[in-house]
Every structure is written in structure tokens, then in C-alpha cells.
Amino acid sequence: MLQKIRNIFELGKKEIWSILRDPMMVILIIYSFTAQVCITASTDKGTVRDAAVAVVDEDQSPLSHRMIDAILPPYFTRPEYIDPAILDDKMDHGRYTFAIVIPSNFQRDLLAGSKPEIQINVDATRMSQAFLGNGYIEQIIRNEADTFLQEASKKGAPQVEVVIRNKYNQNLVASWFSAINDIISNVTMLAIIMTGAAIIRERERSTLEHLLVMPVTSFEIMVSKIWSMALIVAIATLFSLIFVIRWFLGIPIGGSFALLTLGILCHLFAVTNMGILLACFAKSMPQLGLLMILVLMPMQMLSGGDTPFENMPVAVQYIMQVAPTTHFVAFSQLIMFKGAGFSIVWVPLAKMVAIGAAMFFVSLARFRKSVAS
Amino acid sequence: MDIPRNDIAVSFHDLTLSYGKKLALKGVSLDIKSRQLVGLIGPDGVGKSTLLSLITGAHAMQGGELMVLGGDMRSKAHRNKVCPMIAYMPQGLGKNLYFTLTVEENLQYFARLFGQDAAERRARIDRLTKSTGLYRFLDRPAGKLSGGMKQKLGLCCSLIHDPDLLVLDEPTTGVDPLARRQFWDLVDSIQKERPNLTVIVATAYMDEAQRFDWLIAMDDGKILGTGTSKEILDRTGCADLDSAFIQLLPEEKRSGHKTLVVPPLEKGDGSTAIEAIGLTKRFGDFTAVDHVSFKIPKGEIFGFLGSNGCGKSTTMKMLTGLLPVTDGEVYLFGKKIAGGDIETRKKLGYMTQMFSLYNELTVRQNLELYARLYAIPEDDVANAVDAMIDRFGLREHEFALPSDLPLGIKQRLSLAAAVIHRPQILILDEPTSGVDPVARDVFWEMIIELSRNDKVTIFITTHFMNEAERCDRISLMHAGKSLACDSPARLVEERKADTLEEAFISYLMEADATATEAKEAAAVQETAVKEEKPRNAFVKWLAKYFDLRRWYSCCWRETLELSRDRICTTLAMFGAVILLFVIAFGISMDVDDIKFAVLDHDQTIASVNYVHNIRGSRYFLEQPDIVDHDDMDERMRRGDVAMVVEIPPDFSKNLERGAKTEVMFWVDGADTSRAETINNYAEAMHAKWMANYANTHPEFGSAGQFDIQTRYRYNPDVLSLPAMAPGAIALLLMMIPAVLSALSVVREKEQGSITNLYVTPLTRSEFMLGKQTPYVVVSLISATLLVLITAFLFNVPVKGNVLTLALGLLIYCILSTGFGMLASSVTRSQIAVIFLTMIATLVPATQMCGLISPVESQQGLARLIGSIHPTTYMLLVSKGSFNKALGFFDLWPMLLTMLIEVPFLLGASILLQKKQES
To answer: Does pLDDT of B903 surpass 80?
Structure first.
């Protein structure tokens, strides 16, 4: 038993050396957990920001000017007045996401009660901005019309106001979400690539074959890869959370840090096992690379980090229960934003561990065979 | 070609070279005459290989002067000129070969690189393979050849183009005696046909050195002496070169060396260590080992001899339990071998034919690792490691990485690792291949000691006859069968031969027809050397940098390799299709089925009416009512509800009175984009309710009503699919091609076949573009599939111009594979290159290039990356063509931008790729 632990420790130490002796790999790990996190934190993830707006104002009335002036950054760029003749062309080229057309005599018709019509053209190929931005513009226009009418004492309205409270992230600062999401995807990507490739490399250089002649079991080899790779990624992740996310980007992390660390470890257990499983099926490094893309991409996109999980087709939601990322995204939102305690987060944690363990046993059964072939 | 008719082929003066701090060549000077067979002898790691790699131009020069074939090797122009005249076979088993290609294809590739036409290639390949006994194996993949056969193939590859200077670095390491004889006959006959040919060989076989015209003895980065073998023998006063070589060494290295005596095997307790009964292994219909039986008593040194590829290594793998046996039984110490038996493995020491220790660990770290894995107590580890380091002369390399060490030293390290735990059975697969005579004797000394003193049973394969003679018994194997098994002396007697080698060869000749083939080979007619077709000056000038034929041969080889890997090709073509389905059906940007619950403090008709307004929407899904704020916190934290509507007490009273009242919407802000959508919906629902209320209550009047009509252009139904699919095409065609092409280059770096770039006339641009081309084609096939599926299966037809889209995709595929090429030229390991390409493609392409939100919305560095990344422009082309009916005249600026990026990307990747080792 003691010898088993010693073997696992020694083999793992070797893995850490092999990463440290690859300068490119060290640079890439550092980059992906520092600079890249900062860059992606500043990227826009489908929230409306600086959307380009064009206006065709055929009314030229105080009201129309008021409406147009109310369209402001940061959501929108200052609207540009354009000629209706070139509107289509400009939209075709993606110059504007929104084009508002205010018909002539809009203000007069409005006051006369003859229901005029404002048209908003939306470039629907920009899915995320299209919906939200359109909503904002409608709101702005209605608000301006309401205040205008009230000032002109032409209209009374019920005195009901709506107050929206966004819990956990009142101002909906997107960088919180994207920065943490980026770390999650880094963790997943790196852990799978490193463990998977470590096994394929040993197989290609026939060092694995040599190990299996020695008093070392497949179990020990697999566990050694899991702990060493998980350790490297865990250190990078914690570093990134403490220094980059919290300190440099100033993003508050709610909830227990210890619990978050535990979650990261559970996730690492699951994804490192996934790397091993992929390596058991791939025969060469290119095959592994392709398999990895085929698994990683859907896992990232469908785990709920990029788009809300509830919106996916039910079948996809069920399938994605097998992916550890789904549970990790849920877990990290619970911890980081909602400050949830162990009584709530143990469910995703248990699921991640279960998924990891299942993959571990499948790989264990295939491991020796995949080396001998 | 015209070669300066002077008599000096290679001349160097004060040549130095260092690897980091270590000085490998300490200012050597020498003239090597042409038309000779020159032997380079010396212990391992004294700079032989370094010298040879400088002479061939594979390694960049550092200090001193070097003239090869009448020109200065520091000049790039001269290197390019003489490169086709030099052939180089690097050290190591099949280092310059492509393992998935067959023997024939490997040879074809090299022949094509030198611009030979089909008939000439055929003739040369037949001649070379017949004379080396590879003719029967033309269709076998190089990876499936035995070690010795790989060496032969490597040699054939370097001889394919009639070089003027042939440089062989330990070419016969691991080659069986018969094949070695054939091999040297081949070199002789080539030299007869081409009297201009100069051959420089580094070798560890002293019997081979005997036949060389001139010998150079090296030690410790310096030249000890030169002369013909007779001169050297006279000078040292020795009878054979083996001992002469030892005599030449400085005093301290010689010390302790004595002629080995093998004490006779004492009768032990008669117990059997290894027993094989009817051992058989079949791979498909090929029988690698055919009913082999032997019984080895404890403490015996049992030699296993045989021609290359006769099943020796396979037998060993079965003994170690690595390969399951097809038929028959193996017993170690009377116990039947089982794959998972840890106890048996502890008693076993094993050394593979290929170096199989860790290149990432230093020599010392490797030994420590093995010591611990073999359960040596922690206190003894340092001692055991030190003992091995001293015993095998590894002290000066203690902290070096194996990848920087010459083959001989690596072999010693492997040996040390195999015996560090004092095993009871040692299984050694050609342990002394590539090891110098002194080190070999040291090794055998140890073997003998282990066997005689510690009663260790040793199972060894070798191609050195003097080593075979030291075995207690040897088994001769051929084509999977055991021909004879007895003591060396008895075998010689039985065959009535003078030496063991003769006996061995006579056994082989009897069993095999290879020898006759070799004779036939001599009769094969030499092909007439074709006159080169006259080419105009421009074509000649261009050919220096880019030769279409060489480009094509590179392309052809890559295509073959790719097509060998069926799984890979399939995934490369259809992987993107699978992902397209995932993206198209899995991702939806619209938010619906938002789980909401109500906290109604009012409980009146008006408040119920307000809630009813929300309940009716398809976007919302009502959950059981909330009881209080604690309940809300709890349920929102769990994610059971995403939005809570809180209606204040006195809502309806205030409403009727016209007094101010507030409805509160609590939204789960953890997912920002979803939260924003919910905010939006909430506002809209509220506005709708307000308008309704005003309409139904006449006191608010009818003035001031207007409509806002929203026209969703290009995708009127606001479906996710038409918006996502064209974007997904751009995304997918970036990642997969980039990873594939990047790996194709870095694989060669890891496996060593990159040497071919260093030593053949292949230029960097031919190499890189040749490798890239097949991947561009594969990506285009994949692109076509994606477009067809989007258009016909998803019903998102191309509204714009199909040809424009096709042109865009072509440029884009060149760019994405180019990305991979660029990544490959700056990395060395496959792990790093996969990671690098993922980072450089996946993150920018999904987040910064306008897939989700436009580049204009990005800030800072993300904006900069987004505005130069080709995916940005491909997205515009793809969305423009699919959704917006844009044609060439609308999209040409994007196409042009991508086109401009092509030479930059390819140029950078070619320039960053090194043409010489440094």
C-alpha cells in the first residue's frame, strides 16, 4: 500500500517535471490564466454595448429630437442621421444594427390621437443584440413620449412604477460573468489536453509499455496523471482567482473560498479523467486533438456558461448532465454570485465526482489494452 | 554534376561546437580525402555525431571553418548547392522514416524529393531493396518493421539519389550479421559504380572498421589519431581493432579494463527460471512467433540471436507479459505469467530496443524514478543511483536530459535503469546496440557478475558475435521459428564453421532465400543517369526556393499519412458537421421558459390581474408562490426561480387613488446576459399592462397612443438557426484545420523525421506548403459539407453569391491551416501546440470576432484582436452571403483583407521554422 502511494507520487512528480521543462507550455499556462482572463473579461458577451444606431428623422419635431437624444452610450453609439435612400445599403453591410424611422408629422399625429407608427429595423443576424437592443430602444422611445405627453398635460397614466432588482450582481456587470466563465473553460481545456496528451505521448515514445513491465499498475499510472495535472491547473486557477480576478480586475467573489477550491478540485477530478478516457480511445495525437475539439466545444457551449441552460432543447439538457462542466458552471454561479453554502452545492459536487469516477473505471478497463495494441 | 576535382572532400579547421555550456567539439582540424571509405571511431558521446551533423549541414555551425565538397558551409548558397549531393542517415532506429507509410512509399518519397521520374524511381527502389532483403516487405508499414529492418530502410532512403558524400551515423546498429554483410557489399558496389563517392561512417563495430580505407579515432571532442587500420594496428601493437581502440584511449579511461573471462556456469539447484512451451503469437494472419519452446535454468545467460524481424522482440514482450500470447505457455519461476502480477514484475528487469526512459527528466531523475518504482527503500535510493551512475560512467551526464545525449549514453542509462533493483531475471532487447566497445565490456562484466555471483538469469538478444560467444547457450531464430539451441561452441562445431558468425550465417542461408536475392541484386542493371532537361534561368532561380516537384512530393506524402489514419481523416471531414448540429440545435439566443414566482402582498383582483399579464406570456413559466423574502432567497439561490414579482400591499388601493406605487421585480443576476433579457421582458410586460390599464380606464384619455413596429431584417422570424449556422461555419473551419495542420509539423519534430528537412534539398517553403496543402483540401471538403447542410438541411439558403462564398471559404481555409503552421513553427511538443492553437483560435473566434456581438462593441485588446483576426472577415462574408444577399461587389473588401493576411501568415510560419538544427 505504501509502495503504491510512493509510485503514484513519483510518477506524478515526473509529469510535473515534463510540463516545467516545456517552456512554451509554461508560457501558455501563465498566459491563459492571466492575460487571457483580462482580455476576455473586457469582451462583450451578448450584452448590448456600443450598438450602432442610425436614424431617419422625417419629423424633425421637438419630440423626435428628444427621442433620438435619449439614445445614449454605453448601450448605443450616438445615433447617426442618415438618408433613407442609403438605409438598406448600410444595413446590408452591417454598418448599423438598428435603424429607427420616425415618420413625418409624428408629433402632430400623436397629439391628435391618430396613432402614428415608428419603425425600428433590426439586423437580426446579430442575435443577442437584436432582441435586447430593440427592447431598450422601445423603452426609451415610450418613456420619452410619456414624459413629453405629461408635460403637455395631454395624458395621465397610472402611477405604477416598476423597480427591478438584479440580485447577486445589481448592475449586471458582464465582466464578472465572462471572467469566471473564462477560467472555467480554461480549467476544462487545460486539464483535458494535459492529461490526454501526457498519456498519448508516453504511448508514442513507448515509455508506457516499459512502465507496464515494472511493478506499476495501470491504476497507479492513471492516478499519478490525475493528481499531477490537477495540481498544476488548480494552482494556476487559484492564483488567477486571487490575483487576477479579485485583486487586479476587482471582481468580488462571494461565498466561501474553501468551498470554491473544493469545487475546482472536484471538477478537475472529472475532467482529468475525461482526458484519460479520450486518450484511451485515440490512437495518435492528431486523433486526440480532434476528439478533444469534438468533446470540448459542445461541453463549453452547452454547459450553460455561454447561453442559459434552461433554453436548450430538453434532450440536450439531459445529455449535458453527463458533462462535468454543466455542474461546474452551476456550482460556480451558486458559490461566486449567490454565496451558497455546502447544503446547496453538495449536489453538483457529488455529480462531478460521480462522473469522474465512472470515467475512471471505464478508462481503467481499457488502459492496458490500449497500450498493448 | 561538376565537383571540383580536388582530392579533399571535407576539410575543417578549428571546428568547435557547444550545447549550452558543454563543449562537444574542442577545435578539431582535419582534411578528409574524397573517394574513400572513412570510418569515425570512438567512445559514445565524444562528438562523432556532432561532427557528422555539421558536415551534412543539419546542425548550424558555431566556430571554426568547414569546407564540404569545395565550398564553405557557412554560406547558405553553398549549403543549398551541395545539399542534394550529400546523403545523411541520422543515428537512432528509423529516425528519418515515416512509420505509417510502407517501405515502398518511404522510398518513393525520398526519390521524389530528388526529382527522379517514375521509371528511375522504380529501378532504384527495386535494386536497393533487393540487395538489402527488404524487397519482400515493400508493402509493410515502416512502423511494423523490426529495429534492424528500419535501419536498412533508413539506409536505402539515404542512398536513393546517388550522393557524392554519404554520411552514415552508426548505420548498422541493431542490424543482424547477414544483413550487415549485405549492407557493406551494397556500399562497396555503389562505391565501385560511383568512384567519386566519399563515405564517412561512424561505427561501434570494430570488425566493420577493418574494411575502411581510413580511420579517424575520436575522444572527448578531439581527434586522437588517423590512419589506415593497418597503420593503427601497427602503432598500437595490437592484433585486432577492438583492443587497438582501447589502446588509443587515454590512460584513465583504459584503467580497469581487462579482457573478459566468463567463468563456467556452476550447476545450480536445477530450478528453472524461464520456461516457454509452444509459444505462439499471431497478428492477424501473420505469425510472428511460431511454437517456440525453451527452458532456461536459473543463473544462465541465454542469448537470442536471429535476423531482423524474426520475432525476437515479440517473444520478449510475451515473456514480460506485455503482449498476450496467442498460444502456448510461459512460466517464470514455475509460475504462469499473468499480465497483472506485480510480484513477478518486481523480479524482472527489462530493457526495450527503443529508448523508453523519460526525455523530460535528467539522467539522475530517471534513475531515481526507477529506483523508487522498483520499491527500493528510500534510504538506499541515493546509494543505488550513485552506484549505477559510477558503474555506467554517467557521472558527467548526471544532470543532462537524455534527449541531448548520444545514443550510446542513452543505452547505458537504459541498462542502468533495468538493473538498478537487482532483478532475478533480466530481459534485454539489444542492450548494447550503439554502445562503444569499452562500455560494452563494462556492461558484460556486470552481466557476468550478476549471473555468476547473484544467480540472475539473463535473457539477451544481440547482433555482436563476440557477445553471443559469451552466452551459456544461444537460440537461433528465424521467421518466428527456433532453428537451433545450444552452446555457442557446439553450434560452431555442428556447422563445421570457423566462427560463430559463419555458423550463424550458414543457418540463415539454409533457412532463407534472402541471400539469393542479394545475388540477384547485383545483376540488376544500373539505370542510365538521365540528362537534366534544360530549364530557363527564371525557373532555375525559382527552383532554389520553391520547386513544384518537391512541393508535390511533400504534399503526396502528407496525404498518404493522413489517409492511413482513417479515424483522423473521418473526424477531420465530418467533425465539423457534428459540431454544426450541436451548435445549431443546442444554442439558442432567445430566453424563454423563465421560471418566475409571485410574492403578492396585496392579494386583490388588481394584483392578480397584473400577474396574469405575465403568466400569459410564452417567455415565463410560473412556479408556486413565494411565501416571504427568506423563501425567495432560498429558492433563487437554488436556481428554482429566475425572477420574482413582488406586489406591494395596498397595490390596488393606491392604483385606484392614483397614488404612487411600486412593483418590484427580483431577477437572478448571476447569468448577466439572461438577466438583461429578463429585465427587458419585465419592462415590456409592465409597459403593456400600463397601456392596457390606460385603455380600459377612460379617465386617462385616448391621446398619445402610438405603435412601434419592429422589422427584424435578414431573419424575420428571429430564428436562432439562420443566425447561428453561418457563424458556426466560420468558427468550425478555424479550429479543426488549425489543430490538424499544427500537429502534422510538430509530430515530425517529436519523432525526428524533421531531420529530412535539414538534410535534403527540401526548402522550408516546400515543406510547409506541401504539408499544408492536404489540410486545405480536407478543410474545403468539410466546408462544402457545412454549406450544403446549412443550405438544404437547415433551410438557410445562400441568398448572395455562391462563388463569392466559395472564394471566401478557400482563402479562409488557407488562413486557418496557416494558423496551425505558424503555431507549429514556434513550438516543439505536441501538447503545447494543441494548447496554443486552441488558445489562438477558439477564444478569439468565439468571443472577439463578432460571432455573438459585433467587433465594434469590443474594447481594448479584444477589439484589436477582433479587427485583425480572419474569423471576423469570414463571419461577415458568411453572414452576408447566407442572410443578406450580398455579392462579390459588396464583400470584396473582406475578401481582400483575408487575402492580404495570407502571405503574412504563411511567410511568418516559413521564416520561423528552422532549416538547421541549432
So the answer is: yes
**DSSP class of residue B916?**
S
| Subunit contact B687:A112, Cβ cutoff 8 A | no
pLDDT reported for residue B253: 64
Residue A2: closest CA among chain B residues belongs to which residue? B375
User: Domains in chain B, ordered, with CATH?
Assistant: 8-96+163-251 (3.40.50.300), 548-583+718-912 (no CATH), 594-700 (3.40.1710.10)
Instruction: Identify the H or E element spanning B234.
Output: helix B229-236
Angle, helix B241-248 to helix B229-236, in steps of 10 degrees: 60
List CB contacts (< 8 A) between B568 and chain A.
Answer: 284, 286-287, 290
Q: What is the pLDDT of residues B512-521, one digit of tens each?
A: 654 444 444 4
pLDDT tens column, B364-399: 999 999 888 888 888 888 999 998 898 888 888 889
Angstrom CA distances, B69 to B14, B39, B81, B348, stand at 18, 18, 10, 51
pLDDT of B251 strictly over 80: no
Cell of A69: 437624444
Question: Sign of dihedral through CA atoms B192, B194, B197, B202?
Answer: negative
The domain limits of chain A are 2-44+172-372, 53-151
According to the model, what pLDDT value does residue A355 have? 94
Q: Which residues of B touch A95 (CB under 8 A)?
A: none
User: Would the ipTM clear 0.85, i.e. be above it?
Assistant: no
Closest-approach residue (CA) in chain A for B666: A165
pLDDT at B37 over 90: no
Cβ distance B686 to A25 less than 8 Å, yes or no, reads no
Q: Which residue has the higher pLDDT, B46 or B98?
A: B98
pLDDT per residue over B691-715, tens digit each? Answer: 777 777 766 655 566 777 777 777 6
- In chain B, the percentage of residues whose pLDDT exceeds 70 is 91
Tell if the CB–CB gap between A113 and B705 is shorter than 8 Å: yes
Q: Is B842 touching A (CB cutoff 8 A)?
A: yes
Q: Which residue has the cell 450602432?
A: A52
pLDDT computed for residue B357 by the predictor: 86
What is the rounded distance in angstroms from the CA atom of residue A334 to the CA atom of residue A341? 8
Residues of B in contact with A39 (CB under 8 A): 848, 860-862, 865
Q: What is the pLDDT of residue B604?
A: 87
> What does the angle CA A217 – CA A221 – CA A224 come to, to the nearest 5 degrees?
135
Q: B831 and A25 in contact by Cβ < 8 A? A: yes
Let me know if domain A53-151 sits in CATH 3.40.1710.10.
yes
Contacts of A159 in chain B (CB under 8 A): 654-655, 658-661
Subunit contact A46:B589, Cβ cutoff 8 A: yes
Residues of chain B positioned with their CB less than 8 A from the CB of A103: none
The H or E element spanning position B68 is strand B63-68
Helix and strand element counts for chain B (H, E): 35, 25
Q: Is B707 strand, coil or helix?
A: strand
Burial of B352 (0-12, 13-18, 19+ CB in 10 A): buried
pLDDT the model gives residue B707:
73
Name the residue of chain A whose CA is nearest to B99's CA: A204
Q: Is B868 on the interface with A (CB under 8 A)?
A: no
Query: How many residue contacts between A and B have a Cβ separation below 8 Å?
Result: 474
Angle, vertex CA B686, rays to CA B684 and CA B689, nearest 5: 110
* B interface test, pick of A17, A29, A39 with most B CB neighbours within 10 Å: A39
C-alpha cell at A372: 498493448
Query: DSSP letter at B359?
Result: T
Separation of alpha carbons B606 and A267, rounded Å? 48
**pLDDT over 80 at B545, yes or no:** no
Contact (CB<8Å) B670/A283:
no
Which residue in A27, A2, A7 sits closest to A217, CA to CA?
A7
Average pLDDT, chain B: 82
Enter the DSSP assignment of A240.
I
